[in-house]
Amino acid sequence: MSKTKLTIALLVLCLLAFVGQARPQRRHKVKHPPKSKSTHVAAGVWGGPHVRMQVNDDGGTVEYDCAHGTLAQPLVLDAQGRFSVTGTHTREGGPIRLDVAPASQPVRYTGSVQGQTMTLTVTFTNNQQTASTFTLTQGSEGRLWKCR
């Protein structure tokens, strides 16, 4: 083999070795623990004694014996299964004027879900008075005694 061919062969080998080193090394992906995903309260009806809640993607509605309300936000559960959303509460029954709509009051709906059981607390935000705490079951229509 001539010196020229030997020199070219060495250059090619060096070049191949250099190119091999220049390639980015494959790095092993670091696996991070999965972030705790927020989950929504299951859509549909939830009910219990004196309460019925209809949950949907945007929030929902609540009906009590002598009142009704709205949930202004989706019911998103934190890692401990708790939620907290704003909404309204409107009393029903009693003497009312036909030309005046019942006044809604701002409330905060807080609670937790474990399996198919929800605990719901309604608190008036204007005076921090707790209206009531209820236990609801997914799929139950609840038992209401309407004040009409």
Describe the model.
This protein is mainly β. It has a domain at 39-138. The protein is built from 1 helix and 10 strands. The radius of gyration is 32 Å and the shape is elongated. The mean pLDDT is 82.
- As laid out across the biggest beta sheet, the strand order is 2-3-4-5-7-8-9-10
Distance between the termini: 109 Å
Helix content: 10-25%
Radius of gyration: 32 Å
What's the count of strands? 10
Mean pLDDT reading: 82
Largest sheet: 8 strands, antiparallel, barrel
Secondary-structure-based class equals mainly beta
N-to-C SSE string, H for helix and E for strand: HEEEEEEEEEE
**Helical segment tally?**
1
Could you tell me the strand content as a percent range?
35-45%
Q: Low-confidence parts, pLDDT < 50 over ≥5 residues?
A: none
The rough form would be described as elongated
Report a brief summary of the structure.
The chain is mainly beta and 148 residues long. It has one helix and ten strands, in the order αββββββββββ.
Task: Describe the protein's topology.
Layout: H1 3-22, E1 39-40, E2 44-48, E3 51-56, E4 59-64, E5 67-71, E6 76-77, E7 82-91, E8 104-114, E9 117-124, E10 130-138
Antiparallel strand pairs: 1-6, 2-3, 2-10, 3-4, 4-5, 5-7, 7-8, 8-9, 9-10
